[in-house]
Design goal:
Blueprint (H helix, E strand, L loop, with lengths): L4 H12 L29 E6 L4 E2 L2 E5 L3 E6 L5 E5 L5 E4 L4 E5 L4 E6 L7 E7 L6
Parallel strand pairs: 1-4, 3-9
Antiparallel strand pairs: 1-2, 4-7, 5-6, 5-8, 8-9
Length: 131
């Protein structure tokens, strides 16, 4: 059973001390959800992915649990950040930035629904980054 992203985000932010970042469509929810017990005690890190030239840069982000990834669309057209497994789906109009909080470890591949050739991956590890 999947826990709704909004409820999980509030739980993770409240119980684990992780910051409450904007999630899909500004709902305040995280990216892929786990439980608050998944978060590590180390300070979360903010990572940035720039969308420009119909590419995610960097295409792969290596982080820890509770890290935040911010996508900024510098193209003149709308793009999406859509998990291959459907766990998150964010539309980014030109000039927009959205952030997701990752509270579940593992690889999280994503793509743009509008431009299927655009692909990226977030790797969220436990106590350190995934090499």
């Amino acid at each position: 059973m999947r826990i709704p992203l909004l409820a999980l985000g509030l739980l993770a932010a409240t119980l684990a001390g992780c910051s409450d970042e904007r999630g899909p469509k500004g709902n305040g929810g995280p990216g892929p959800g786990g439980s608050s017990a998944s978060c590590v005690a180390d300070a979360p890190v903010a990572h940035t992915v720039v969308i420009q030239g119909s590419r995610y840069d960097p295409a792969t982000v290596d982080g820890k649990l509770c890290d935040t990834i911010a996508w900024t669309n510098r193209d003149a057209v709308t793009h999406t950040v859509t998990a291959d497994d459907g766990s998150f789906d964010v539309a980014l109009p030109a000039g927009a930035t959205e952030k997701l909080l990752f509270v579940e470890g593992g690889d999280h591949p994503y793509h743009c629904k509008i431009h299927p050739g655009m692909k990226g991956t977030v790797r969220s590890g436990g106590e350190g980054t995934i090499a």
